[in-house]
Amino acid sequence: MTGKVIIDLKQLSFAWPGQAKPALSIDAFRLNAGERLFVYGPSGCGKSTLLSLLAGVVVPQQGVVEIAGQRIEKLSAAKRDHFRADHIGLVFQQFNLLPYLNVLDNVTLACDFSHQRVTNLKQAQVSALDEAKRLLSRLLLPESLWTKSVMNLSIGQQQRVAVARALIGAPDLIIADEPTSALDRESRDQFLQLLMAETEQSGSSLVFVSHDDSLKSHFDRHLHLPTLNQAVSTVEPSAVEGANP
Ligand SMILES: Nc1ncnc2c1ncn2[C@@H]1O[C@H](COP(=O)(O)OP(=O)(O)OP(=O)(O)O)[C@@H](O)[C@H]1O
User: Fold this and answer.
1) ipTM of model
2) Can you cite an annotated GO cellular component (predicted)?
């Protein structure tokens, strides 16, 4: 852990277009480099909205969203896209894999859009292709599938490809939205252990959203979002639990 702050939110307020009331209102929140955060709370409490703000898909009407030292709410949409490709690995419920590319090409594609990820791989003295193979092996995706179209894969296998794509080139932050929803309990625990091991190795911070709070034990920090989000009424005493609240 370097002590670097990866997420710094201040006086944040965000309302979806056409909505009078904010969906998210956060006074202050920080996540340090290497920390792994589990975000939970009931449907509608703002989990996906928070991830969209962290990824720079949307920007707040008020306040600061600083990711790895960059105030992304001040960037143009094009610069936010560029920043996201360089610094953030996304694993969303829809994996957004490209059906006309094979598995390896879907993983290395993340490097085609990011000078930063290529630089990180060069520093680690590994090619994008070799790193894609290493990640897919670690994520237990059979080698016989690597040159197949992602359309031939099961949902659980596609999830692994999406995770390898997020991790390649060691971005500062991995954002995962319900990535285990399609897995059975045994595969889910195995998947989480691998995700933890890989983020630890790369030094990436992790923000992981789920309805399923039985997954909490895998994480260093837990965030009950309705408690932090002042746009949602709540009775919980403390929003952030864990090693470094
Ligand atoms: N694209 C959108 N346009 C307008 N309102 C939205 C949009 N997305 C979410 N909302 C609203 O913002 C609030 C927070 O929704 P959000 O999807 O962030 O919650 P969530 O905790 O992720 O829920 P779930 O667990 O069901 O995915 C809700 O009131 C929702 O209706």
Assistant:
1) 0.97
2) plasma membrane
